[in-house]
Write a structure and sequence with these properties.
four-stranded mixed β-sheet, 5 helices
């Protein structure tokens, strides 16, 4: 069975975008990606998040804005045998108050399969 976890950020890829996002976070700009705020420090990915992803039993990929026709960024998606579904939706992410909340939601989705 082929599986992968897709982290779908609602920001643009690249170094310049990362710098712009860091500036927004410094200024507490509400347009900063919530998923990015949960998973990253000022510029780099938080160690707890990268350690969590490294322990997953499947490949992990990062994408920005859109993924194979799914436009519900931010989200965490799971692909299993060619079928893709969100295991953590943008609404779920908005409900997260910490990185630990996000990790719990991703764990639940990975363990139980697809949400709804």
């Amino acid at each position: 069975m082929s599986q992968r976890l897709v982290i779908l950020y609602d920001s643009d890829p690249g170094f310049l975008s990362a710098l712009a996002d860091a500036g927004k976070r410094l200024m507490n700009d509400p347009s900063t990606s919530l998923l990015y705020r949960l998973t990253h420090g000022l510029i780099f990915e938080k160690r707890a998040w990268s350690d969590f992803l490294a322990k997953q039993p499947m490949a992990v990929e990062y994408h920005h804005r859109r993924f194979e026709g799914l436009a519900a960024a931010p989200a965490v998606l799971k692909e299993r045998d060619g079928s893709i579904s969100a295991i953590v939706t943008s609404e779920d992410i908005a409900d997260c108050r910490s990185l630990e909340d996000l990790i719990k939601r991703v764990e639940a989705g990975v363990l139980t399969g697809f949400a709804g």
